[in-house]
Amino acid sequence: MYLHPAFWNTDLAGWRPGAPGRSPLAPAQLAAVTERFAAAAERWRPTARQDPLRGRRTRLLRTDSVEVWLLGWAPGQSLGAHDHGGATGAFTVVEGILVEECLDPTIWTTGRRTTFPAGSRSAFGPEHVHVLGNRGTGPASSVHASSPPGVPARFAGSGAPARAALQVAGAAS
Q1: Which of 92, 32, 38 has the alpha carbon at shortest distance from 65?
Q2: What is the pTM of this model?
Q3: CA distance 121 to 94
Q4: Quick one: which of 85, 171, 73, 86 has its CA closest to 131?
Q5: Distances (CA, A) of 93 to 16, 78, 99, 122, 163
């Protein structure tokens, strides 16, 4: 297990979301995990940074059943069209505004757009495909969880299905 040092002397130090060896966690369970870490902003806030060129990711937790990351978003920054490699996922927006374009998982074209202000969350199953980004004028931070841990996201042009459609969908981000 890995726990970010900012949480070593907290009630999260001995916390294990989900039962050992039982993976993946359900989307609702992951949403609860992201909310718990989002509520501890005073612990991770010193590590929250936005890098306009590369983004900023900080691992907060990894267990046998879940991985949790803090993402810092500069204005205009986004992650192109991607799925989560078959993992379930969730995120909670802590500051700023994120916009998600959910894509049809069979052809990866835009299905709906949702704006998530600070305090809102989203949870999704293993078939979810989306573009996520900071469309606001200020920085944004969000806490993300996925289960099982260690499953890489597949981005447009990286062997994911319907590459041509992905490039068009990703170009809009």
Answers
A1: 32
A2: 0.83
A3: 9
A4: 171
A5: 22, 14, 10, 9, 29
Instruction: Please check whether residue 88 is in contact with residue 124, taking contact to mean a CB–CB distance below 8 angstroms.
Output: yes
Reported as a single tens digit per residue, the pLDDT across 63-107 is: 889 999 999 999 999 988 899 999 999 999 999 999 999 998 777
The two counts, helices (H) then strands (E), for the chain are 3, 11
Per-residue CA distances from 128 to 71, 90, 123 (Å): 19, 11, 10
Distance CA 52, CA 31 (A): 27
Residues 6+ apart with CB under 8 A from 141: 48, 50, 70, 71, 72, 73, 93, 94, 95, 96
pLDDT digits (tens, 9 = 90+) for 11-69: 776 666 765 556 689 999 999 999 999 999 888 877 766 666 666 889 999 988 999 99
